[in-house]
C-alpha cells in the first residue's frame, strides 16, 4: 500500500516482466573488510557460538524504531542497513505488499529525490526460475525469456509504480539477544519509478511486510532465523516500533483468524460495524490491515452509514462543517481553532469492528475518536476515515495507520492469526527485555 500525499491506497497488481525495454547495468560487488555473517556462519563480536543453536533458540526477535506520523508527515519509515559495506536506507513501512525494494543506481532512468545516495546493487541476480521470482507471479506457467534475471513491475493504486530487477544482498540485523547477523536476502533494485507529486515521500524505498514468500519476514523465517511473525506499534505522538519474531505476551492479545479466502493480505473474516457500542446492522465487512495507508477506508455502504450517524450525533454541538479545509474530504470547525483531539473527543463516539471468531465468540477491534480523527493545520477536526469506493476499492475496507495507533498489532503467519492489544507505543522494547 502506498500513499497519495497523506492518503494511502491499496496495491493493485504485481507483475513480473519477462523482458524489459530498459536493461539494468550492475557494477562490481561492494567489498567489505569483514566476513559476511550469514545464517550458516553466525558469529558475534562479543562471543562465539554455534549457529545451529542460535537458529533453534526460541524467542528470537528483531526490533526497529519507527519514525513518522499520520498527520502532517503522512507516513512511517524504518531504517535498514543493506549492502556490503552496509549503508542506511529509509524504507516506507508497508504490510500491504510483499517486495522490499530500493531506488537503485543501475543506472536509474527515473528516480525521486532520496535521503541517501541511490542503492548500488550487488551482482547477485535472482534468476527468473528462482522461487522468489515465481512467488511474485500470478500464475505458475510464466515464461523466462531472460533466464538470468527476474524483472518486476509493481503498480500501486495511487499511480505510483516501480520497475526493476531482483537481486540478493546482505542485510545487517541486530537481534534482541545481542547477536548481530548479516543475512543475504532478496530485494528489488528499482531503476524506473513513476510517481505523482502528491505521492512523493523522502524515503529510499519500500519495506514489504506482507504474507507472500518475497516479504522480508518470510525470507527470514525460511532461513530458520525467526518465526514468521511481524508486528508494529504506532504512537499517537509519532514514531513507535516494528518487530520480527516473538516480541509480545500472547495472553494479552486479542486474536482473530486471518481470512481463508484472501491469502495475499492481512485480512480477517467478515466484521460488523459498531457505533457508540451499539450494533449498526452494517455487516459482512471485509477488512485489510495495512500500514501503507495513513487513513482508514470504508466501502460505500459503511461510509455513508458512518457519515449519517456522525451528522446526527453532531446536531446541536458547537461544530460546523469546514468545506474550505481540503486536508481530507470532511472537516469541522469550532468557535476557535482546536489544538488537540482531547478538546473535541467528547463530541464523538467510539467505533469498533466486531469479528466473529466462532459461533459464540467475537473479537472486537476498538476505534476510539483519537483513532479516526485528526486536527488539521487549520485547527479543524477532520475525519480520518475516507470513502474507499471513490478510489475503486469496491467492497474492501482498509484499516490504516490512524486506526491502529497506540495498539500492538501482531500478524502471526505461522498460526494464521491477527492480534491487537492496547499498548504504550512510545516505549521501544530493549534488547534482552522484549516482553510487552
TrEMBL record:
Residues 31-51 are annotated as: Disordered. Residues 76-421 form the Peptidase A1 domain. GO terms for biological process: proteolysis. Belongs to the peptidase A1 family. Residues 1-24 form the signal peptide. It comes from the Eukaryota. Keywords: Aspartyl protease, Hydrolase, Protease, Repeat, Signal. Pfam families: TAXi_C (PF14541), TAXi_N (PF14543). The active site is at residues 94, 290. One of its GO terms (molecular function) is aspartic-type endopeptidase activity. This is Aspartic proteinase Asp1.
Amino acid at each position: 500500500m502506498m500513499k497519495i500525499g497523506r492518503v494511502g491506497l491499496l496495491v493493485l497488481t504485481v507483475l513480473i516482466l519477462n523482458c524489459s525495454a530498459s536493461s539494468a547495468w550492475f557494477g562490481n560487488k561492494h567489498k567489505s573488510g569483514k566476513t559476511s555473517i550469514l545464517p550458516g556462519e553466525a558469529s558475534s563480536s562479543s562471543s562465539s557460538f554455534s549457529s545451529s543453536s542460535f537458529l533453534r533458540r526460541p524467542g528470537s526477535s528483531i526490533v526497529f524504531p519507527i519514525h513518522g506520523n499520520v498527520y502532517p508527515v503522512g507516513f512511517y519509515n524504518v531504517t535498514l542497513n543493506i549492502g556490503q559495506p552496509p549503508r542506511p536506507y529509509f524504507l516506507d513501512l508497508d504490510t500491504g505488499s510483499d517486495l522490499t525494494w530500493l531506488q537503485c543506481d543501475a543506472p536509474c532512468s527515473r528516480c525521486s529525490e532520496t535521503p541517501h545516495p541511490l542503492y548500488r546493487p550487488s551482482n547477485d541476480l535472482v534468476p527468473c526460475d528462482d522461487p522468489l521470482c515465481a512467488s511474485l507471479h500470478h500464475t505458475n506457467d510464466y515464461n523466462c525469456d531472460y533466464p538470468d534475471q527476474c524483472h518486476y513491475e509493481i503498480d500501486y493504486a495511487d499511480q505510483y509504480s516501480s520497475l526493476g530487477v531482483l537481486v540478493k544482498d546482505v542485510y545487517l540485523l541486530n537481534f534482541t539477544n545481542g547477536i548481530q547477523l548479516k543475512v543475504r536476502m532478496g530485494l528489488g533494485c528499482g531503476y524506473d519509478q513513476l510517481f505523482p507529486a502528491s505521492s512523493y515521500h523522502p524515503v529510499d524505498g519500500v519495506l514489504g511486510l506482507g504474507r507472500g514468500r518475497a516479504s522480508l519476514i518470510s525470507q527470514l523465517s525460511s532461513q530458520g532465523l525467526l518465526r514468521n511473525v511481524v508486528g508494529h506499534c504506532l504512537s499517537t505522538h509519532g514514531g513507535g516500533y516494528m518487530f520480527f519474531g516473538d516480541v509480545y505476551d500472547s495472553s494479552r492479545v486479542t486474536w482473530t483468524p486471518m481470512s481463508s479466502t484472501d491469502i495475499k493480505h492481512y485480512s480477517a473474516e467478515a466484521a460488523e460495524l459498531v457505533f457508540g457500542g451499539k450494533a449498526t446492522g452494517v455487516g459482512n465487512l471485509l477488512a485489510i490491515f495495512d500500514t501503507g495507508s495513513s487513513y482508514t477506508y470504508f466501502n460505500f455502504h459503511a461510509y455513508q452509514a458512518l457519515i449519517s450517524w456522525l451528522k446526527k450525533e453532531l446536531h446541536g454541538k458547537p461544530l460546523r462543517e469546514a468545506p474550505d479545509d481540503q486536508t481530507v474530504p470532511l472537516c469541522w470547525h469550532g468557535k476557535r481553532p482546536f489544538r488537540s483531539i482531547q478538546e473535541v473527543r467528547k463530541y464523538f463516539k467510539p467505533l469498533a469492528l466486531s469479528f466473529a471468531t466462532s459461533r459464540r465468540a467475537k473479537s472486537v477491534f476498538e476505534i476510539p475518536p483519537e483513532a479516526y480523527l485528526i486536527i488539521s493545520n487549520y485547527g479543524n477536526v477532520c475525519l480520518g476515515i475516507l470513502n474507499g469506493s471513490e478510489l475503486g476499492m469496491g467492497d474492501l475496507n482498509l484499516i490504516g495507520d490512524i486506526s491502529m495507533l497506540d495498539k500492538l498489532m501482531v500478524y502471526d503467519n505461522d498460526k494464521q492469526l491477527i492480534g491487537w492489544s492496547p499498548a504504550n507505543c512510545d516505549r521501544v522494547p530493549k534488547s534482552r527485555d522484549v516482553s510487552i
